[in-house]
Amino acid sequence: MAISGIHLTCIGRGNFLLEPLGSLNIQDAGQLMQDIITLLQQSSGVRLYYDLNGLPVIDPVYYEWLNKLARICLTANIKMICINMQPTAAFTLSSFLTCEPLFTTALGVPD
Amino acid sequence: MVQKKEAGEKMTALFNLKIGNISGQLEETGREFFCADNKLMDEDEVADLSGEFVNLIAGLLGSKDPHKRTSPQFHALEMFFSGLSQRMLMRGGNVEDVVRYAQQLQYSLISALELDSGIIFTQSRSVLLYFAQVFDELIMAIFRTYLSEREKTLKAQEAELRETSTPITEIWDGVLTLPIIGTLDSSRTMLVMEALLNRIAKDRARAVVMDLTGVKNIDSQVSHHLIQMVRAVQLMGSDAIITGIHPEIARALVSLNIDLTGVTTRASMSDGLKEAFSRMGIQVSHKAN
Q1: Given this model, what pLDDT does residue B11 score?
Q2: Taking a C-beta distance cutoff of 8 angstroms, is the pair B237, A106 a contact?
Q3: Contacts made by residues B258-262, CB under 8 angstroms, sequence distance 24+
Q4: Residues of A in contact with B205 (CB under 8 A)
Q5: pLDDT at B112
Q6: What is the pLDDT of residues B76-131, one digit of tens each?
């Protein structure tokens, strides 16, 4: 099932890699989350790696989207890990974070 | 206005003299200032300098309006003194030498013109006033160059100091250390954070040990920046470990109500490194005999 605005690839052992595309519309977060979780559950996903490589800045709106996605993943017992966060994005995000995000972070997909 | 017109006529008269002949007389002034003890120039260079100056002053005196400060001829003279000032500063000379040279050049120029023309210019108020005004502007150009060069030097030194005061070192594959020494202020914390985050991305560092042993005091804003730095490091997917927090700093953090939940701290840099190694599954031990 293709989901508009993202590339979702199975990278083995229940791990999935989500790469957001330029056409990603987070205004339609509800439908998007539902499509993602459906696909992950159908494929017995356990971990979702969200690739932030092309994202120079994370503003409160985008952070809310990430947190919502992490929350829905948790309800389906899927762990969401944000990877490849850019220094500028980490800087902006850290400047307005008041509590721990619902997702974890890693440098990349572990070998 | 009448005085200006009179001076203008005198300037044209001066230009009509074979001004090129006075170059040799001006060389003496250059040699006195730049070839004496300080050896800032050799004799050939002084000769070129004097020749160039004579050409430029002749250009100004022969221009349509020698009083005009915006004329290309005047600008060329300003650039000549700016360049000279810059060159002398780069060679270790000081601005005073260049200013005194410019002043002496003014007197030498008038004497040389007098000698060449047989007219006593020192008795002509308008000519003296004209040269005084021209040379005042040129001395201003020297000072402007001096100040701008000094500012550039200070900025370069400041940048160098910033870089050396926060050395980020990859002490092991994927482990960075950042000893922070001296006073932490907001701008420095921001610079350190920027350098550190870029380094994490470049080296794909999995752990960062920030050592505060050299930090003696901290204020509310800086402590927030410090926590922000730790958070940003964690967001990039690395572990942040703070070591060497002085009792005064610990007390300040408590009284400032800074939340250190989720921040790993260790007493010393060596403990911090052990923690980083242990998280990465690295064991460092003595070699068995």
Answers
A1: 60
A2: yes
A3: B258/B223, B258/B224, B258/B227, B259/B227, B260/B227, B262/A100, B262/B234
A4: 107
A5: 78
A6: 989 999 988 888 888 888 888 888 888 888 888 888 777 776 667 666 777 788 88
Q: Which residue of A has its CA nearest to B236?
A: A85
Closest CA to A67 of A46, A97, A108, A90: A97
Inter-chain residue contact A87 with B194, CB threshold 8 Å: yes
Q: Which of B194, B206, B236 minimises the CB distance to A85?
A: B236
Give the helix, strand, coil percentages of chain A, each rounded to 5: 40, 25, 40
Q: What pLDDT is attached to residue B3? A: 54
Contacts of A89 in chain B (CB under 8 A): 235
> Which member of B228, B229, B235 has the closest CB to residue A85?
B235
For chain B, list residues whose CB is within 8 angstroms of any CB belonging to chain A: 193-194, 197-198, 200-201, 204-206, 228-229, 231-238, 262
Between B4 and B251, residue with greater pLDDT: B251
Chain A residue at shortest CA distance from B194: A87
Q: In this predicted model, what pLDDT tens digit does every residue of B183-221 receive, in sequence order?
A: 777 778 888 889 899 999 999 999 999 999 888 778 888
Element (H, E) at B29: helix B23-34
Give the CA angle between residues B258, B260, B263 to the nearest 5°: 150
DSSP per residue, A19-64:
EE-TT--GGGHHHHHHHHHHHHHHTT--EEEEE-TT-S---HHHHH
Nearest-by-CA chain B residue for A109: B237
Residues whose CB falls within 8 Å of the CB of residue B46, separated by 6 or more in sequence, listed in order:
B27, B30, B31, B34, B35
Q: Which residues neighbour B145 within 8 Å (Cβ) at sequence distance 6 or greater?
A: B81, B82, B85, B86, B89
CB pairs under 8 A between A and B: 51
Cβ–Cβ gap B229/A105 under 8 Å? no
Q: What is the pTM of this model?
A: 0.64
CA distance A52 to A60: 15
Inspect the interface and report whether the beta carbons of A90 and B197 lie closer than 8 Å.
yes
